[in-house]
Amino acid sequence: MYGHPLQPKPLVAALRSRHVAVAACVAELAAGDPPTEILLIPAGMFRARDGRPKGLPGWRLTPERAREIIRDAESARGDLVIDYEHQTLAAEENGKPAPAAGWFRRMQWRDGEGLVAVDVRWSTRAAEYIRAGEYRYISPVFEYDRQTGEVTAILMAAVTNFPAIDGHSDLAVRAAARFSTQETTMDRNELIAALGLSADATDAQITAALTAGREAVTALTALRAELGVDENGDPKATVADLKAARKPDLSQYVPKAVHDETRAQLAALRANGESAEVDRLIEAGLEDGRIPGQATADWLRQRGLAALKAHLADAPTLEALKGTQTQGKRPQDDDKDGLSAEEQAVCKATGMTVEAFKAAKKTD
Fold first, then answer.
1. Does a cis peptide bond (omega within 30 degrees of 0) precede residue 53?
2. What is the pLDDT of residues 124-158, one digit of tens each?
3. Residue 159: which of 104, 106, 211 has the closest Cα?
4. Neighbours of 150 (CB within 10 A)
5. Does residue 249 have a pLDDT over 80?
6. Model's pTM, two decimal places?
7. Amino acid 251: pLDDT
8. Rounded to the nearest 5°, which phi and psi values hold at 115?
9. What percent of the chain has pLDDT over 70?
10. What is the 3-state secondary structure (H, E, C) of the chain?
């Protein structure tokens, strides 16, 4: 998992220095309506009933540190979860789901009492359990300084009926793994260097950097889920899976042969329509003299509809050809200069010389 290019190595090293306590202290839930406030960490020095923390007088939380924890939690993007029996920590091991029993984010320090979550929202199921007295205790998971025992962060909590478990149990080990920790620790200077802070960084700055690290890991996990990749950056879904998930709606398609036949029919219809339009325009042009004769009509027909329209738009009406007996058609005995009567009329109307017209005819 560690060393993946998407995961900053200094951040992972810093997270490894954290020390986590599971179910270290317990607040009891009275049967009845589920409380909106729960005690997370008691004021003063405290220990678990199994004797932890070993090698220290106890855990403790000062008012100053509590205020830093409160600020960090309120500036974080998400709420803190309350689950059942610390299943969030055990899910990877036992493969079971880890539903939330509740959520909280806002906390208060109360002298003589301790650190209290003041905006607890319970799920419907958890509320029913608490009303029925089926869950009686709140068990927090928190970070602490291994040298001093001072609590430095609240990570989550759980409703449980087996509080203050033995510190060497599997669940304690899973907590360390879940929050990217080891039982070993680095000294303060190593931690500051790993976090990229200045040598004179304060405890508050170190805590803020660790909080930012947790948020970065959370964001990375969300990004992996969005991209559909595992911790190594490999796709979770195979190509076959993706293809199976994208079955086309066949009702939106037609066979290629039908498509090609339809295109051919449309092309034929367009061609027939254009041919009919050419015939109509030539007939009109012959009628009003804009086309002086059949030879010109045949010549324009070869040029196509666009050229025909352009000619008719610019050509003058030749009154001499309108209503003639020949309707502009070439008399059999009229072949002056090798041109028919209508060809001579075109030359006269357009200003073309006989030679130029003959040259144009040859190129056709």
1. yes
2. 999 999 998 898 888 888 888 888 889 988 989 99
3. 104
4. 16
5. no
6. 0.44
7. 65
8. -90, 120
9. 70
10. CCCCCCCCHHHHHHHHCCEEEECCCCEECCCCCCCCCEEEEECEEECCCCCCCCCCCCEEECHHHHHHHHHHHHHCCCCEEEEECCHHHHHHHHCCCCCEEEEECCEEEECCCEEEECCCEECHHHHHHHHCCCCCEEEEEEEECCCCCEEEEEEEEEEECCCCCCCCCHHHHHHHHHCCCCCCCCCHHHHHHHHCCCCCCCHHHHHHHHHHHHHHHHHHHHHHHHHCECCCCCECCCHHHHHHHCCCCHHHCCCHHHHHHHHHHHHHHHHHHHHHHHHHHHHHHHHHCCCCCHHHHHHHHHHCHHHHHHHHHHCCCCCCCCCCCCCCCCCCCCCHHHCCHHHHHHHHHHCCCHHHHHHHHHHC
Residue that the structure tokens 């007939």 belong to = 283
Q: Which two tokens stand for residue 283?
A: 């007939």
- In single-letter form, the type of residue at position 190 comes to E
User: Which residues make beta-bridge pairs with 126?
Assistant: none
Tens-place pLDDT, residues 164-219? 543 333 444 444 444 443 333 456 777 788 788 888 888 778 878 887 877 877 77
> How many other C-beta atoms can be found within 10 angstroms of the C-beta atom of residue 191?
20
